[in-house]
Amino acid sequence: MTTILPIDQMIDTAKGTISRDIFVSPEFHREELEKLFTRAWLFVGHESQIPNPGDFFVSRMGEESVILCRDTKGSVHVFLNSCRHRGMKVCRYESGNTSLFVCPYHSWSYTTDGKLQGVPLYRVLYEGQLDRSEWSLIETPKLHLYKGTVWASWDPEAPDFMTYLGEAVDHLDQVLDCRDGRPGGSEVIGIHKWILPTNWKFAAENFLGDTYHNPSHRSVDMIGIGPSARAGQTGRRDNEYNKGQHVWVSYPQGHGVHSVWMPEEFDYQAGYQQYPIVDEYFRHCFQERKKRLGDKARIMPFTGNLFPNTSYHGRQPRGLCVWHPHSPTETEAWRFFLVDADAPAEVKDVLRRFYMRYSGPAGMTEQDDMENWLYATKASTGTIARRYPFNYQQSMGAYKHNDPIPGDVSVQITEQNARNYYDVYARYLKGDGWESLLGRGEAARQAAE
Amino acid sequence: MTRRNTLAWFALKQEIEDFLYMEADLLDQRMFREWLDLLAEDLVYFMPIRRNVKFGQHAEKENTRQGEGISWFDEDKWTLGKRVEQILTGVHYAEEPLSRVTHMVSNVRLLEVSPSPEDATGVVVGSRFLVYQNRVEYETNIFVGRRIDTLRRNGDSWLIARRELILEQNVLLAKNLSILF
Ligand code: FES
Ligand SMILES: [Fe+2]
Is A108 near ligand 1, meaning CB less than 6 Å away? Predict the structure, then answer.
């Protein structure tokens, strides 16, 4: 599984340069699909979307359609959404409940645990030839449920999900746990799906910790669209992080987060002005969370990206976003919006309205991101453009290990998260083993030196 | 049942069509603030997300619902005012430089008239929209769908009290919905 691409020249994070080719070339796109998306753990969906036996939700893993399904006995599966006979998509509804997936083409049918059950005219046409037990729907060999979220990998050798996630778990928890610190308890209240003409890594890298792009959001910051904007406040969210130290943290598995490390003593910052019930709710959650989590409550999440393509927003707004490559220059984005399942109705309503005006193609903040990613991709496709690498030299070396929290931590805006991400990315494209992909191998040690 | 073959009916239909074309023209001429003036203070502006559902489940499940969950738009006049303000900052890069937009409105039908065509103060009007957007050089989007507007008489003009936009797409094929519909 070696590659013909001169990856080390193209991704030179010691120098801080990365070739534009990895963002625009069909070769890199193909290599990513073959060597990265077939191995890494990918986000598939959320258990709140399939609460009952027989429930299914059609999702994607990279370029391919998959079915997330709770079988009639209650176990969760992820199947490739393609019939074993001639490949027809066996499910073209987005979600629902069924006891059988019946292929529209020649009517083979599969049970919710993936087994091939019905084959029309089996006796006459297939008896003695077709062993139905060998023609189940193709299922991901690895599946993990974590606090409501569902993750899968196509690699039977992949390490378990918690090892893969590593110490980034402390930050993901702040996204998935209830606002008052109880573990899990979120639900998906809606999904955006849209096509953006950009390379998927622009989006992943943006969430990974590109705080430097803040000026591109000047328009929303000027006019104010945050939860307290109706009270005349500018900015795009409430300032919950008043006295906190912003931290940009990267992990050997390729994940990167931007969080805030609050001081030992910190108080609730009033927000949601004009919504006293919501403000009171968050004040209460804040106190409870501090009691429950102790020191861990000092981590307040901003954004992050779990390698390779699952991004999150931690609080305002709150949700997970998955960037599915269609081609080198086209991405299908899916955003899953989260709230605490047991939050009061008024809280959910204020949040969903804020999410809609902030996020996605109709979101006043993210429209400007999309504009940037599109034209950055387009302007990098040219022959001359591709001769000149991107610059990744921001805050070189300016980080400490495990200080003040686990990971490589920078306390200034940095491209370290991106440099680390592309180091790991390069190892996938070189076909490295899992030890290396988890940042424990020789290659990783050398890169760190 | 209101008779639909009276002069009053046709006069009202003509008046409403003129209003819708004038409104579309304000947007296309980028007279955003003037456009906002046509919106009632209690406006509901709603564009659901459409889903692929099994035959027979369309009424129940095809469209996301106003007032719950996530839609493309489920908002009020304040939020639309923010969208206009944002465009007018000159640094909203998704609309800077401004897109070129044409709103086509057709298939106009009066669905409800109250109290009567002669002295109508409220109208529900159905139409189709075809919105063409071209931005920068090559970026082009075509948005097509149905629209149901509730209009309220305002002197010798009208105010839009409710606008429902049923876009004929599932996965949104445009990177942004940065224009007004
Ligand atoms: S392709 Fe599915 S039954 Fe033939
Ligand atoms: Fe952004």
Answer: yes
